[in-house]
């Protein structure tokens, strides 16, 4: 017999070795499952955070821009800017509350 043949003999002669082998396989499978990256939850939270930030910046910036344009044409500086910025903030917070009340997918 050569050394290769003895090294490839199956390990099935002892029940303790078989039980240990099964437990090792189960432990490896649990470890692989435990170490899988949880990208879906983190990715969804990241998208929600970006959406909230966009709503807030868009509401404030959009309201300020529209208010500035109203002030330029109507000559009512700074009241158009202040009123429209306030309305933009109100709309942004309303949208943020709506986003936060949505159920996760």
Defining key terms:
105 residues; mainly alpha; 2 domains; rod-shaped
Report the sheet-strand fraction. Answer: under 5%
Mean pLDDT: 85
Query: What distance separates the N and C termini?
Result: 62 Å
Could you say which structural class the secondary elements and strand pairing correspond to? mainly alpha
Order of helices and strands: HHHH
Low-confidence parts, pLDDT < 50 over ≥5 residues? none
Overall number of strands: 0
What gross morphology would you assign? rod-shaped
Radius of gyration: 32 Å
Biggest β-sheet description? none
Amount of helix: over 70%
Number of helices: 4
Total number of distinct structural domains? 2
Please characterize this protein's 3D structure.
The protein has 2 domains: 3-34; 39-100. Helix 3 packs antiparallel against helix 4 (79-100). The radius of gyration is 32 Å and the shape is rod-shaped. It is built from 4 helices and no strands. The two termini are 62 Å apart. The protein has 105 residues and is mainly α. The protein has helices at 3-7, 15-34, 39-74, 79-100.
């Amino acid at each position: 017999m050569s050394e290769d043949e003895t090294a490839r003999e199956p390990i099935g002669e002892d029940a303790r070795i078989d039980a240990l082998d099964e437990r090792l396989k189960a432990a490896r499978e649990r470890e692989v499952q435990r170490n899988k990256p949880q990208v879906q939850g983190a990715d969804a939270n990241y998208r929600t955070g970006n959406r909230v930030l966009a709503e807030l910046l868009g509401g404030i910036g959009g309201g300020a821009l529209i208010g500035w344009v109203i002030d330029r044409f109507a000559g009512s500086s700074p009241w158009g800017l202040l009123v429209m910025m306030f309305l933009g903030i109100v709309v942004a917070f309303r949208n943020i509350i709506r986003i936060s009340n949505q159920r996760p997918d």
